[in-house]
Amino acid sequence: WFAAGLHGVEYAYREGMRAALKDPNIDAVVPILLLTDETGVPSLQFIVDLAREFPEKPIYATFTGERKHMDAGKAFLEPQGVPTFPLIEEPFDILAILTRCRNAMGRR
Prior knowledge:
Structural class: mainly alpha
Number of strands: 3
Strand content: 5-15%
Oligomer: single chain
Low-confidence stretches: none
Largest sheet: 3 strands, parallel
CATH superfamily: Succinyl-CoA synthetase domains
Strand order of the largest sheet: 1-2-3
CATH class: Alpha Beta
CATH architecture: 3-Layer(aba) Sandwich
Order of helices and strands: HHEHEHEH
CATH topology: Rossmann fold
């Protein structure tokens, strides 16, 4: 949270995600967004922008925090093509399934 405190929550998430998405060894990014009144709720447009900038690498967003902000995040991101998951474990389960499918199909 040091970067978030120094530069703001949106900047910290965006730049961290951008660095991961640029890495050729990373196939997807799962941001776990803490959305509360106390910590601040950033505009989630940066996630949509990153998804468009890196269309070959999916972003699977998940949330923790206050339900009203989590519902608003889902309502904003999903119509713009960014899948969201209400439970933190779910996107990781999806990635494991996709990996098994890719291996079964003989792809790397």
